[in-house]
Amino acid sequence: MAVFLSVRAFFKDESGLTVVEYVVGAGLMVVGLAGLFLAFSDTLIAEMNTIFQTD
């Protein structure tokens, strides 16, 4: 009976879900930022070259 209660308590425990949600959210942010930088990489490189030009 104690094993059944332990297993039942384990499946009802939702405290670990918050960590998973943070990891998924962080992963989505990384993918989004990577996509943003890839989409605008040529523009960003041109602007950085203009800003840091040493003529």
UniProtKB/TrEMBL annotation:
TM helices/strands, residue ranges: 20-40
The keyword Transmembrane appears for this protein: yes
Domain of life: Bacteria
Keyword terms, alphabetized: Membrane, Transmembrane, Transmembrane helix
Name the UniProt record assigns to this protein: Flp family type IVb pilin
Organism per entry: Vibrio aquaticus
